[in-house]
Amino acid sequence: MSESTGARARTVLAAGCVLWRKSPYSADGTEICLVHRPKWADWSHPKGKLKRGETFADAAIREVHEETGMTCALGSVLPTARYLALGTPKEVRYWAAEATGGAFVASKEVDRILWLTPAAAHERLTHERDKELVTVFLDILRSVGS
Hints:
Blueprint: H1 3-10, E1 12-22, E2 30-37, E3 42-44, E4 47-49, H2 56-68, E5 70-85, E6 88-102, E7 112-116, H3 118-124, H4 128-145
Parallel strand pairs: 1-6
Antiparallel strand pairs: 1-2, 1-4, 2-3, 2-7, 5-6
């Protein structure tokens, strides 16, 4: 096994979404869902590790449902985040995903969600890499609306 293959094998693979919905309360008609994870005391986009044999897209949809209670329709691919999590390389692939139904139920993993305007979501997010996803998401919305 080559060094690069070994490093890739040890990378934690995950997927998530910038979950959004149409809203009459936001200036641009869009709200973004953020999740609060009490274990890390942070606000982020719904995401989680892939299960064995699961595709990134399937994991993204599953994680959105598990963490927010929402079903969703995947849209545009967003930038992949690569970073160290507790010293281990992590790769998270993201999509924009429109909420299509469901209801939130608090759990040990996610105790609260918020639906916020994109500007408020950008301010509330804990990690810069998550804020960058909001910026890219808004650029995509603007290009589609043009």
